[in-house]
Amino acid sequence: MAERRTERVEVEIEGVRSLVAVDLEESPLGWLARRKGRDGAALVSGAQLVAGERLRADFTRAGMTPRLTSDWSAVARSANRNAAGLSIPEAALAARQRLSRALDAAGPEFAGLLMDVCCFLKGLEQVERERGWPARTAKVVLALALDRLARHYGLAEAAHGPERTRMRAWKAGEAGESG
Question: Are 33 and 146 in contact (CB under 8 A)?
Fold first, then answer.
């Protein structure tokens, strides 16, 4: 059996930061993040990858993945709590709410594409075929969708702020005085 290639990515959900293993062989975003464009930059940036994987994590936590067989584990134990102190049904509901807010922020133009690529793990060629788009169109539209999603999550490639800020205090000790 071939070993799966995973990468650890830091994700923050509702103030809780955690490292998540991303299966780069499974995710279309992982594949795009490893590929370089003509300019030498990755086709999907780090912020875009984290945003897409965060959407997928909420989709999975919400229990929205399609099942191929019957689920006989329907007895949910409400006494079981996760790290945030939520029961399993509460955690699933919270994940659905986060997913809904993220897709609303992406807008109706991008929500379906984000669901297809990030959550249902469809490749770009399949998306283009299903939607009747010209070749290589999905890559451009996906980049725009992931940018909007990253902005919703507050993710950026670099921190930006003012060049200079007002000096608030300047204090120097006298000779022989320590800090």
Answer: no
**What does the DSSP assignment read for 113-170?**
HHIIIIIS---HHHHHHHHTPPTTHHHHHHHHHHHHHHHHHT--SS----S-------
Q: What contacts 91, CB < 8 A, 6 or more positions away?
A: 61, 82, 84
Domain presence at residue 19: yes
The answer to whether residue 134 sits within a structural domain is yes
Please report the pLDDT score of residue 92 as a whole number.
Answer: 84
Q: Is the model's pLDDT at 76 over the cut of 50?
A: no
**Residue among 44, 4, 38 at smallest CA distance from 21:** 4
Domain holding 23, by residue range, is 6-65+77-153
Work out how many domains the chain is built from and give that number: 1
Q: For the segment 52-67, what is each residue's pLDDT rounded down to a tens digit?
A: 999 999 998 888 776 6
Evaluate whether residue 54 is within a structural domain. yes
- The model carries a pTM of 0.68
